[in-house]
Amino acid sequence: MNKAHIELIQKIAKNLIVAITVSIVMLNLGAALGVLSGRGIVAGMLSAGIISIITSFLSGARVQGSGLTAPMSAITAVIIAKASEKLLQDYPSLEIGLFINIVLIEMGALLIIAGALRLGRFIRYVPQLVVAGFMSGIAIMIWYLQLQLFTGGGQKTLDGALAQNIFLLVLTVACCFALPTITKNFKFIKAIPAPLIALIAVSFFANITAMDVAFTQIDDDVTRLDSLIKSIPQQLPLGIELHVWLLALPFALQLAGLCYLDTLLTSLVISKMRKSDGKYSKDLMAQGVSNALTSLIGGVPGAQSTVPSVMMVKEGATLRVCGVAAGVIVLGCALMFSQLLSYIPMAVFSGILVKVGFDIFDSKAVLAYLRTVKKSLHNRPHKILGHKEMAFFSGTALATAFIDLIAAVGIFSALYHLVSRLRIKKPLCDYTP
């Protein structure tokens, strides 16, 4: 065995070690965001694994971590709610799961078409200020969905005692924030994501104290590989009339647009970190294929995710095998250990999602605006956000959360460029998160 072979083996081994670390994050996000989406915890983890494997093979970047993301799961939950309450009233025989599968297939086709038309290059025209508002709007949407879960219309919607469910939520959020500080001096523990430690610790506490709270419900059929394979034909929307596919198209456009933003904004970050040019249109096509295939398991749509992608780069991953291996590990754990999920209270997942909301909410923009109001940052003009900049930020956030996210990004991006041209002598702040 020559030196080149030894170096290759060492490189593969290093990428596999990184894959193990990243898979822990993907599992945690897959479980929590599967719950958020309304498609189920196991469906979330299985989808995270499938998306990671396929995009790692097909994407334009050798190093990228795709899976479930908070924006995609939040919008999926909204789509399911709208379809269940209104859109399918005229089609009582059509299962909501099949309708969402149609949305996923159409979404995948739209992303493949966008990639083939090389539309990925247009991501550079979305201002950072609008991106910050968009992500903050998704955070608001996640918090609102969790509020509805606990107090829907003034009534609790989780089984068990409302006060105890709220206590577990608060305890989980507190652990997620406090653990990084507590474990920073412990080399091995600090490598484990704080939400995962919080999930295990709070769930253990809830079980040994026999708390009266809602626990996760697991379907036995989706935890066995043979049953999962046999269920695939049931997920195919065969024989569905054309007008139902047309009914699903606006939702598919919404998810495709969100996946475009979610994936390519992360791709921009990774390209800067690796000092390489991204192949954004190829990334879109990879996401299209992976999301369409998740419909075969009644899965959850996803995109390239910032957290695992950045983690891969920082840990030194250099090969596609890293993302593939991470996906395989996630799939294996989802099938072998999913029965343990029945010991996890639903409030714990809600707490993790609340923390996810804090992670993606751009508090730096708000703080920069408050400092500007106090006139304390005149010596750092690139950090200053005035009233007009905050109007773009807050307008995008509120429109994303309560109106329409694609319209929010499109309209406020166009307004931003228009106002920037009109204010030549005093341009808008070039916000950098």
Give the strand line-up of the largest sheet: 1-2
Strand content: under 5%
Number of helices: 16
Roughly how much helix do the residues carry, as a percent range? 55-70%
Largest sheet: 2 strands, antiparallel
The domain tally reads: 2
Tell me the number of strands.
Answer: 2
Give the CA-based shape.
globular
Rg (CA only):
22 Å
Average pLDDT over all residues: 80
Low-confidence stretches: none
Structural class: mainly alpha
Written account of the structure:
With 433 residues, this protein is mostly helical. It has two domains: 3-359, no CATH class; 362-422, no CATH class. It is built from 16 helices and two strands. Strands 1-2 form a two-stranded antiparallel ribbon. The protein is globular.
Task: Give the SSE map.
Elements: H1 3-37, H2 41-58, E1 66-67, H3 70-87, H4 96-116, H5 128-150, H6 162-182, H7 194-208, H8 225-235, H9 242-274, H10 280-294, E2 303-304, H11 306-315, H12 321-336, H13 346-360, H14 363-373, H15 387-402, H16 405-422
Antiparallel strand pairs: 1-2
